[in-house]
Amino acid sequence: MQGFNMGRYVPPDQEGLMSGNQLHGKHALGARANKISQGILTVRFEMPFPIWCTHCPKPTIIGQGVRFNAEKKKVGNYFSSAIYSFRMKHTACGGWIEIRTDPKNTAYVVTEGARKRDLGEDKVEEGDIKIMTKEEREAMRNNAFASLEGKIEDKQRLEYSKKRLEELQDLSEQMWDDPYEQNKRLRRSFREGRKQREKEAGVTVALQDKMSLGLDLLPEHEDDARRAALIDYGEVDAERVTDKAISKPLFKIEEPALKSRSKLKASKASRALKAEELARKKKENIASEIRGNTRAAMDPFLADSRAAKSDSKPFLAGVKRKQSQLEEDAPITTAGVNLVDYDSD
């Protein structure tokens, strides 16, 4: 029966007399019990609150919920409750941190290698119940004035709590005096918001279909409208667009290549990466196309006054420059770009 003995062999003559762990000198908890002779057991400890590590050269915080392999050991008693210490190693600096239980105050206390981060949670707020120590209770019993002050404070707190509860109850009754009207008003506001959201979603989908965009469009903002007003989308340079179109081949030419099984496996594994790369290139192409077709809006009167003041003509990227006098005197001819050398019928 090796299944119940962690896979360790037990001779037939020893079956029923001792277990596989006893026969091989192993503990049932395995590596967790390497220091069990010293009373130390390795457990998984979760940080109950954020702390500052004092071993790190720079201030380093260990957040709440971070888990460590800690050495658990009993170090004392508080009446019949045991006090345990959890000693763990901070991997970032190699320093040791020790946290102990505090049954007296039902809390954890950092005793070595770190300090607790002050979040203001230890302060007694209004409505909280303060747990007094034994000395404080004895002082309260012996001091009649202190006990009287405590009773007065408790009465004032009780009166305030009753008044606050009555106000909340009156407000709730006033708001929900007619539940049908309240629900009707809530449903009406939800329907209005839903119609507006559906309308905006329809406009967004229509714009994506019209512009053939595979991108998620964010809702319109006032800053976007103001910046768009400062942008002037000028005419398209026909020669540049034509040269760009002619430079590309009419049909895509692909050379056949033999792929081995290893290459096929690699291509399947990198298919997701290729899809992300294609999406990124598509975004970059759209952005470059928009930048190429965009020029900043400019007041023509201000441009003429600046040109009159200085003979030098500064070059502004994206702004059309004034044509020379020879070009103005020359006759303007508009002709389409011929893609063939012969006349059409």
UniProtKB/TrEMBL annotation:
PANTHER family (alphabetical): SPLICING FACTOR YJU2 (PTHR12111), SPLICING FACTOR YJU2B-RELATED (PTHR12111:SF2)
One GO term (biological process): mRNA splicing, via spliceosome
Record family assignment: Belongs to the CWC16 family.
Source organism: Mollisia scopiformis
InterPro entries in UniProt: Saf4/Yju2
Organism domain of life: Eukaryota
GO CC annotation terms, alphabetical: post-mRNA release spliceosomal complex; U2-type spliceosomal complex
Protein name per Swiss-Prot or TrEMBL: DUF572-domain-containing protein
Pfam family, one: Saf4_Yju2
